[in-house]
Amino acid sequence: MAHRRAGKTVATINDLIRGAVTCTKREPRFAYIAPYFSQAKDVAWTYLKHYTSPIPGVTANESELRVDLPNGGRVRLYGADNYERLRGLYLDGAVLDEYGDMDPRAWTEVLRPCLSDRQGWAVFIGTPRGLNHFADAWDRAQSDPDWFNLQLKASETGLLPQSELNDARKEMSEEIYLAEFECSFAASVIGAYYGREMQAAENDGRVCRVPYQSEIAVDTWWDLGVDDATAIWFTQSVGREVHLIDYYEQSGEGLPHYAKVLQDRGYVYGKHNAPHDIRVRELGSGRSRLETAANLGIRFEIVPDIGLMDGIDALRAFLARCWFDREKTERGRQALTSYRKQWDEKRRVFQSHPLHDWSSNGADAGRYLAVGHKTAVRRNPEPPARHWIEIGAGEVRPDNSWLGL
């Protein structure tokens, strides 16, 4: 994952050439794939010809955008807009450039099988453009030892002059600049409410492995869906830090399903927290979900309703205290990062309210988490009632017998 003009295409074209020259298998085949065939030609063909030209005996085929090497190796350019034509080929190595702009089926259904019998490799390169399958691949590479990952930010590489970066920053919105030059998936979701906060969590190392600590109770924070998904955050409070150790989301299920999810997790639970509308009685049964949950052994506390925008502001501030388990909270983190303002296409401005889409459930549950922590009051236990006994005329003293004294 690299900033614009970092040289990722040049680097990977040279990887393909080196692979084709050094591969010891019969008739090596290597491929560069761009989202469109015309894009592959515009971006990579000149580089491929230039870097293979010093090799004695190399030939270039302009019509098929391929170079043939004297050892029988071949490097060819393709477009993912017609990925079906690659079905049945074998490959020893492949580069997928701007993978996030491709149909993900190009990899899963066609290109991945092309590598199997030759035990080939694949490199995914690009710049963030929202939380798509490129973001999923990047997240997977963080925790899978079979993957290598490299991030090149313009602020760290020194490849572009600072004066150019300063000028670009003045011309771009902050979100676009962070996506294009600082490799921020969070900021690449334009209009995101929590983009910067989630990027800060990543930069600070607060997205990592966060293990469950059995000596600390797990609290749950719910957004209960009716026609859409129910989302649950699982948290542990460790000093001022809040560890988000797990996340679950499902749709089309009743409360018994979620009660079993809690049981199967095997956590020791503290408080279960839900929004105020859990008290609303359902037309069919006449019972509230609060009562139904209690019969299933889930006793909810109600998170105060402080208003949508105040809740969003509360979560923005609260996220600085949060640590996320990278693997178990992936879907929830994507929801927080994708939650964004509604775009008014006619007026070309963002509206003052959120877009309701798949990300709303996890983001709403996160908002209740922040509000619940913000409004919680630490209550000291009431002192026991003091009893007095008469010991003389007009004299009393405390009766401490109940203390065992």
Protein described:
The protein is α/β, with parallel strands linked by helices and 405 residues long. The chain folds into two domains: 8-188, P-loop containing nucleotide triphosphate hydrolases (Rossmann fold); 208-375, Nucleotidyltransferase, domain 5, CATH 3.30.420.280. 34% of the residues lie in helices and 21% in strands. The protein has 13 helices and 17 strands. It has helices at 8-22, 37-52, 105-114, 133-143, 154-157, 162-171, 174-182, 195-203, 255-265, 289-295, 308-318, 330-338, 360-375; strands at residues 29-34, 59-61, 66-68, 74-79, 93-97, 121-125, 207-208, 218-223, 230-238, 241-250, 269-274, 300-302, 322-325, 341-344, 349-354, 388-392, 395-398. The strands form four sheets. The protein has a seven-stranded mixed β-sheet with strand order 7-13-10-9-8-11-12. Helix 1 packs across helix 2, helix 11 crosses helix 13 and helix 12 (330-338) packs across helix 13 (360-375). The chain is elongated, with a radius of gyration of 29 Å. The protein starts with 7 loop residues before the first helix and ends in a 7-residue tail after the last strand. The model is unreliable at 377-391 and 395-405 (pLDDT under 50).
